[in-house]
Specification:
CATH superfamily: Alpha/Beta hydrolase fold, catalytic domain
Strand content: 15-25%
Order of helices and strands: HHEEEEHEHHEHEHHEHEH
CATH architecture: 3-Layer(aba) Sandwich
Helix content: 25-40%
Length: 369
């Protein structure tokens, strides 16, 4: 079955893919040397080798990952939808922490006819109670069908896993229910960030740990080709994509939509961002694009809106050659691509979605239909 395109509301539609200026290639989007983003390109003129940078990043995030225990995955209620089946599942991310997720299985896909799998990380948007429900097509109170991307990918033939991030969806609840303060929503997010920092770690460390378990879960499903895995995320989900990239070699294709801020841009514009973007001590070694670059040589595509004030475009443009150089150094120059859509903000446009589809079609085997 052919996938239904994810179509943003008409008020958010922008220029078509063919009408956009030369923004599909690396050379066409590099900022001039006089741009405010020049500081990003020159602030850290040299870098250690990737393995050394990865060691430094792990130390800043919070140290080594714990040894993975049993997933103990439970497959629960299932609902038949048009073109796919949606199942509620749960699994262990840590020995005493069980999380819920939606698993979307396309029609015609089963253990005898497995398909590639894609993890979809949900956005933030202050939607603490929504989480996984939006990409899985259950509900989207603010953006209609724009970010029901798990559904769109399932209808293209991919098995899709949509988990809740820490503090969102079914995880938007007090960590200690009997305590005096009913900590939820933004307060819970602040609480989690602060307690992980106090423990010498970071919320980014926890997010990565949880995402690695999500990949474990998806790879374990009998309907999934475990050597054909990818991930996608919008906004905070994009941050999660490039945070996970350096640590998950099983991912054969990664796409981040509309989020790659930089510390340089945050400082220049007084920008406050989502907590996963703050890695304690990392700025002594580099900026956030230097984390993105550690995904090399695995295939990565990034989409941006020129007017997205959450990822100021001057610094984004300055960062693209930096990431491209990291890929070229590993003989994988063609594995990194990006797209900047003119006149567009923090959305998933038709053009952005087209690039996303093309990236997964290029690097993940198609399911038999």
């Amino acid at each position: 079955m052919k996938a239904e395109p994810v179509t943003p509301p008409a008020t958010l539609m922008r220029r078509s893919f063919l009408a956009s200026v030369t923004t599909t290639g690396i050379a066409g989007t590099v900022a001039s040397r006089s741009s405010p983003g020049e500081e990003l390109a020159s602030e850290h003129a040299t870098r250690d080798e990737p393995d050394t940078m990865r060691e430094k990043l792990l130390a800043c995030l919070g140290g080594p990952w714990p040894q993975a225990g049993p997933l103990d995955m439970h497959r629960e209620d299932a609902t038949e939808e048009e073109g796919y089946r949606r199942e509620r599942i749960s699994y262990l991310v840590e020995p005493h922490e069980r999380v819920a997720a939606w698993l979307l299985v396309p029609q015609g896909v089963d253990s005898r006819h497995p398909a590639p799998g894609i993890c979809v990380w949900h956005q933030h948007a202050g939607q603490y109670d929504v989480g996984k429900d939006e990409p899985a097509g259950v509900r989207a109170p603010n953006d209609g069908t724009m970010h029901m991307t798990g559904v769109a990918l399932a209808r293209e033939g991919y098995v899709v896993l949509c988990p809740d991030a820490a503090g969102f969806g079914e995880r938007n609840r007090p960590p200690h229910p009997g305590a005096a303060h009913r900590t939820q929503g933004r307060d819970l997010e602040h609480f989690l960030f602060g307690m992980y920092v106090a423990a010498g770690k970071s919320l980014a460390w926890k997010n990565i740990l949880d995402m690695r378990r999500a990949v474990d879960c998806l790879a374990s499903c009998p309907e999934v080709l475990s050597d054909q895995l990818g991930c996608y995320g919008h906004s905070m989900g994009s941050t999660h994509t490039w945070l996970l990239g350096p640590w998950e070699p099983r991912l054969k294709a990664l796409v981040g939509n509309c989020c790659m801020p930089t510390y340089a841009a945050m400082e220049r514009t007084n920008l406050i961002h989502c907590f996963p973007n703050y890695v304690p001590g990392w700025r002594q070694y580099g900026d956030l694009p230097d984390i993105v670059a550690l995904t090399a040589p695995r295939p990565l595509h990034l989409n941006f809106g020129e007017l997205d004030d959450g990822s100021p475009i001057e610094e984004v443009r300055a960062a693209m050659p930096r990431i491209a150089d990291a890929y070229a150094a590993q003989n994988a120059a063609d594995q990194f691509t990006f797209f900047i859509e003119p006149g567009t903000g923090h959305v998933l446009s038709d053009a952005m979605w087209s690039h996303t589809q093309q990236h997964f079609a290029r690097y993940l085997a198609r399911a038999p239909r």
